[in-house]
Amino acid sequence: MQYIYAFLVGGAICLIGQLLIDKTKLTPAKILTGFVIAGVALSVLGLYQPLADFAGEGAAVPLSGFGNLMAEGMKDALREDGALGILTGALKSAAAGIGAAIIFSLLGGLLGKAKGKD
């Protein structure tokens, strides 16, 4: 059942994104930023963790999960490091994912062949 829950929640998050693309004049960058901010806001309100516990990776993989990861990292660092944790916690918690994205993007750029827009 965990796979079904992950599929349904992840699919619902993607559906919301697609509806925002189709029905509004928001740019994709604004929608993606909105998903990160929504993840942070839901995490601060204590609503994202129950969703992540229910849906697993269906809630963790979308960009709202990235916002949740950053908010949780900031809360943990704030407890451990005080006010300095506000500045460092989000990046520490997301560093592995950001680093992997940079490395795989670099590899894709080096190994792939660019095509022109024709």
Automatic annotation (TrEMBL):
<feature type="transmembrane region" description="Helical">
    <location>
        <begin position="94"/>
        <end position="112"/>
    </location>
</feature>
<dbReference type="InterPro" id="IPR005562">
    <property type="entry name" value="SpoVA"/>
</dbReference>
<protein>
    <submittedName>
        <fullName>SpoVA/SpoVAEb family sporulation membrane protein</fullName>
    </submittedName>
</protein>
<feature type="transmembrane region" description="Helical">
    <location>
        <begin position="29"/>
        <end position="48"/>
    </location>
</feature>
<keyword id="KW-0812">Transmembrane</keyword>
<feature type="transmembrane region" description="Helical">
    <location>
        <begin position="6"/>
        <end position="22"/>
    </location>
</feature>
<keyword id="KW-1133">Transmembrane helix</keyword>
<dbReference type="Pfam" id="PF03862">
    <property type="entry name" value="SpoVAC_SpoVAEB"/>
</dbReference>
<keyword id="KW-0472">Membrane</keyword>
